[in-house]
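Schema walk-through. Below, the input block comes first and the output block second. Nothing else is stored per chain. Lengths vary across the set, and this one has 88 residues.
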Amino acid sequence: MENQEQKIVVVKQKSMGLTIILSFLFGPLGMLYSTIIGGVVMFVISVLVGIFTLGLGLIITWPIGVIWAALATNNHNKRIMNNSINNQ
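--- output ---
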């Protein structure tokens, strides 16, 4: 007889409201809450766009970052829910 251990992993969902507030107020740095890779990518893009357009391009990149952060949080929470349903 094999003795199998059951491990329970608790992962907290990310707050959509906090994601939107952080990414709106702090831009790419606020995105780090929801997606680290996305935050780094948008930081680099925002710096480059900001330099070449004297900051006017941030009118485009900032909302894109907020939307990306919201989508990343939504995907993260869906993955958690799917994994918890599949493991029951």
